[in-house]
Amino acid sequence: MADFLESEAEESEVESEDDEQPAERKKVKRKAAVQSDDEDEDEEDDEERLREELKDLIDDAPIEESGSDGEDSDASAGPKKRKKSDDELDDRLEDEDYDLIEENLGVKVARNKFKRLRRLEDDDSDNEGNDDPELEREVIAEKLFVGGSDDEDENRSESAAPRGEVEYDEEGEDLESDADDFIVDDDGRPIAERKKKRKPIFTDASLQEGQDIFGVDFDYDEFEKYGEEDYEDEEDEDLDEYLEDEEEEGEKRRTKKGKAKRPSKKSIFEIYEPSELKRSHFTDLDNEIRKTDVPERMQTREVPITPVEEGSTELEDEAEWIYKQAFLKPPVSKPDAQEARERSRRGNSTITKIRQALDFMRNQTLEVPFIAFYRKEYVQPELSINDLWKVYKYDAKWCQLKQRKENLLKLLENMRDFQLDKVMQNPDAPIPENMRIIRDEDIDKLKSVQTPEELRDVHTHFLLYYSNDLPEMQRVQRTKEKKRELEERKRQAREEADKNGEDPDEAAAAVEAAEPEDEEPTEVKYAVRSGPYELCRKAGIEPLVKKFGLTPEQFAENVRDNYQRHEVEQQPIAPLEAAAEYVGSIGSATEVVRRAVYMCGVQLAREPLLRATLRDALRDRATITVKPTQRGLKEIDENHACFSLKYLKKKPVRDLTGDQFLKLTMASEDKLLELNISEQIEGNTSSSYLEELKQLYQKDEFAATVQAWNELRAEAVTIALTKIVMPELRRELQAVLLQESKEYVLKCCRRRLYDWLKVAPYESRVSEDDDEEWDTSNGLRVLSVAYVPDRAHSAFACVVGAGGELADHLRLPHLLHRRNAWDALERQNKEADMTALRRFILRKKPHVIVIGGESREALNVKADISECVQQLVEDEQFPRIPIEIADNHISKIYSNSIRGRNDFREYPDILRQAICQARLLQDPLMEISQLCGPDEEILCLRYHTLQDQIAKEDLLEGIELEFVNRVNEVGVDVNEAVLTGRGTELLQFVCGLGPRKAQALIKLFKQTNQKLENRTQLVTVCHMGPKVFINCSGFIRIDTSSLGDSTEAYIEVLDGSRVHPETYEWARKMAVDALEYEDEDANPAGALEEILEAPERLKDLDLDAFAEELERQGFGNKSITLYDIREELNSRYKDLRVAYRSATPEELFDILTKESPETFYVGKMVLASVIGITHRKPQREMLDQANPVRNDETGLWECPFCHKNDFPELSEVWNHFDAGACPGQATGVRIRLDNGLSGYIHIKNLSDRHVSDPTERVRIGQTVHCRILKIDVERFSVDCSSKSSDLLDKNNEWRPPKDPYYDQETEDKDLRKEKEAKQTKERMQYVKRVIVHPAFHNISFAEAEKLMEKMAQGEVIVRPSSKGSDHLTVTWKVADGIYQHIDVREEGKENAFSLGRSLWIQGSEFEDLDEIIARHVTPMAGLARDLISYKYYKPLGGMRDKAEEILKEEKARNPNKIHYVISAAKNYPGRFLLSYLPRARCTHEYVSVTPDGYKFRQRTFDSLPGLLRWFKEHFREPPPSGTPAPRTPAARTPHQASAYHTPAAHTPAFHTPAHTPGPAYINTPYTPSAQTPYMTPFAATPRQPEFLPPPSRSRPHAAAPGYTEPADWQKAAEDWVRRVASSRDPSGTPRSSGTPRMSGGRTPRESRDVRSTPHGHSSGRSSRAHSLRSTPHTNTSPRSMSLGDATPLYDEN
Fold it and tell me: Given this model, what pLDDT does residue 404 score?
């Protein structure tokens, strides 16, 4: 908001300056304001003369009047025109004329004089003469919310105007413009002249400028006056009344009338929202905190610091309590190792140290940093600074607990007095049975309470027994109080009457008479108890409860001591008999007993001692069980934070570590996990604690009466524990565990911040060689480079000089381009950027260069800059400037922050990022603190993944404490903070100060334009109180060397050190003693300066003796302080932070990848994209021994290394080798991870099966799952595995380790259940559709088949498809029990439920369902019907073995006939199995029914007779393999035979004999051996490659002629030899194509003569046979059994 106002104000200034004439007037006006600001008070005459000269040029009244009278006219639109009209109107017109003008114009016109003003106010009371409120807000906001921290203060005046001058409104000037011309003062000057000689109210030039432009008369110092003078303006609220009553001379009255406009000026409380004022610390409370002389953090603590009364032992009690609660008592969950070590090393001496620290805090109001730095002797070594903060925190808890205890104690005592009064009303009567008298033991119990939980127990116990008496007790108490007050007043009246000589009794009677009538007081409303217990109590059965044998206190003591300390008092009568007397209106004794048991249980449950004992037992023995929900089973994978905790079984809460419980709670809230704290806890000697407790409330006898009472007691204990106490304690335990987890996360956040803040400013390593240009004494020059990975955005370089000032910047639009880019323009642009950067470095001479670690490209940028620096080293004798890569997390937050935008509003984000990076190198503490403004942007930094789970206030408090520790360790230079505007945020963390006090301090120095010259001025100039001064003075650093001769004030050299002003004398004494001055010659100041030049002389001092002397003189123990003083004199304000160091390779990896060891680790499963295949190039020896392989299918040769298989000639393979074109054997796959890292999967890690060619498994651009095996942080690469075994990781080798209490058994059980559920669940799911058609049914697959059982053959059902809402399924009945399901794709759908405009079945389009049934289904149904009605049709369901049985039976009956049968195939609906027995072995082929006819052997037949006729003529021919049967890919080895095969569902015409092995794909390596004869039978049967996946029907080139194996191999061979003897190819490699190949399967070489020369080779192929390196295949070679391109390999075995 403030920033918006500031920006608007700036824009307004620019706009108004652009207008020529207004700018001229404003410029003169501004000049006057600035000049008057620069003059001293004694030069008033000069000012008056100047104003006289400018009087004719500047006339403020007309232009400002319009602005101040609530007009909406535009101040910059036409000032000349308005001035003229205003002059005419103001000087010449009467009221009637104004009325006429207003009536005609329709707008109000500003009228002169007071009467005119009052009328306007009456007319427009809402806008009481107010200016444009936005303009007022802008000017005020300039100072309030933004001013003081930015660079606009540079233009402010050198000397400030004195505060408290008489101020006048511009409205006031307007009102008296007429009268002032003739009213003169004592010197004869017109008073108007004196009024116009206004002192500027703003000391800041820019604010004064704003006031002059907008006429807003708001004084920032009004904040100061508020609270001190209660705004004097408000005294004049009722002006009318004031003007009527005042009867003085005219001049004074007119002056008062002039002030009459004051109420129209709005205060900040009217202009700004309360939330804005609170945010910027301008509320009444903030003013009070500023003025109070107590450290600010002590005032703003939730429980403010309070001193301890003298003589009280509270500090001792508190110290002991804090020691036990904060340092001795272990947490419920498992503490970390460091905390456990610290707890063990502390002894009882810690209590003394804690008490001393509490004394410093509470009685001396010393803050923690002061105690840690200047009172070390009293707290070290037991208490570190963080331990002191813990003491400070627990002090607040103690004060809160003490206050609550006192309140409850007062309540108990009042109740005891009330009970006593009630009993004493009738002393002889017995005490009522239902009254529980408060005893001293109850008071002692309350006093011994140690924790808030115990106090709550005592309070609920009190309410259980006494809540009904509270209202009456309250009334009695109030009556007593009134009587006491009346007696006190009467006593005072008597004393007064005695003094005055009056009658005391009369005075007392008068007081009594004056006592008002009893008013109905406002009572404290207590909760009305109307629960079951209260009903039982009203029924009067409480006495029966007492007969149970033990009081709740006695039972609790039994439980605490774990034995029957108190024996049970047994009643002689049975429970029902005892209950008989209490039946009353309840109805039955059984009901009375039931209620008594409940009352007993409640009383036990509310007993504080029992609750405390059970609480300890639960925290010690409780276990947690975790189980995932259904949603959790899916979402909690191995990358989830709760993966190792997904199933837990009885994990003790004592074993929970770190943030585990917080993660579990978050998952539970997200409904991912069910988290349960055990209801049953183990006992001391048995498995059930509850059973043990029951035994402690039993009478050990076997009588029936005793057993009856024992049962009731056991029931009461069960109710108390299971229904009341344990659920409450479990909730309490859950809250404690959650709080401990959050504290752990907060500790991690603080540690992360500490790691950032502990780094010292960068120290230049550039060799100076006495060269002033490279001297760092005036500050470090840093060149910073920032970029974003997107090349569309420019990168920026900037140089930041001393004090964080931006010296210059450079835009580098092509920084990320590569120098060796293929694009010449890109190379040219890159070179231009590098040249510009080199010149920039040469000109600015930075001491160090820092690059923002945005991505891995930072490494390339570093290499480029290194090259630039190297050139400068070689050409310009430049020193070698170090180059660093830094984490840009903080700088990115800063660049997007409100603070960053305010500091550098006109710069782009990337440049702001570069500036922040440079400043972080100069001073991390200073730069990170810039985010600690009122906008709380420091919370935007990422300290921990779970930081959002911590309450914002707690995280802010933790961050603040870390800043307080570091800032006080380093100190703050106030003068530098005021000068640069960058240290103001640091000042709030100084000990004793805070945001409010620091704000006031900075404001004071800015307004007075002074420097802090010594620490004493904190008191004399800043009016700091003694308490705040003592706390902060040692941490405020003054650079005494920079003051030099610029001041006349005394310069104390120790003000530039950590030595506290209280010990200056001792430091001087040490200096004098070290120099061995005589007392009369001693000059302490001179001795100090001398010792600072030669500090080694301090080593000879005996500081221990000095400390003893000081202690003897009553200064206390100062042994460590003296050593600290000596250390400080050796090196004043030595930086205690850790020196900057460059990032290690691991840190650089995390910076550039934005990963961490928690998010990126070995074993993590990641997604990656395949970007390439790696190869190993073959060596020359390997090439010489190479065996090229020829593919029988294509006739092409294949390279044995890279497996390139398109070489038509063998010689081309050798040319391929010789040219070096062979990339070599594939070795693995290159991948890229989501985070930009490159990775590699070795070929052996690609799959569990052997892979020789990675392209069989993956393709470029494919996304694969893989697991990280190795991380190379230096090369920014990872080795991965995509093996299924590694991904599944059943042995848990790679996954994050599971918790020791992980419930693997339950997980396995759930996985089995889920698997079974999936199997039983119906797999076919569909979306219900709105389609009107008689054949359409909204049913599933199974329902459709069931419905079709009773339907006729050929009937159709259309139903929804499981493939989605844009598919339908047409199911038709082929035969009984056989149904074909046809997928229909819809296009042109209006919505998901309607029918598409066009319907597609494979490549055919249909308009509607009727067309599908008519054109597609009905023809197929008719063809199927013909087959079913055929005489040789058998309902065998397509079973081959059954068909063979029938055929063999028929063959046996009639051997001379070739028998055949047809059956509908159940496995392949829509196909019919044609089985026939030509000889001894059955053959099976499929006939498919299609809308066009029967399809058999890739031929289509219109009718069944036509089909059978062709079959009978050609059955001896081998069937063509249109689509091969699915096979398991064979290994690429020459000798492997294939397995047996069955036809695939999608290959209706492919036939493989039942006992015939399918073709195996054999790679035949080239074998240089002797010429051997060979024979390849059945050249007419081409070969089908085994390894290829089955192609679809749309790929005709994949189809090749099939083969039906003849009955006898020898006969087949002889037959083949006879047929081809005459046409054998002389080359010796017969290649024929007796069965025509599909056109798509031929290569161009085959297509030339494949039909004309069925057994010959093309010229291209024949040439290969005569190659010098060619060797014909032999019968014993791996290819000897080849039967042609698609003939199955014969299995010799």
Answer: 94
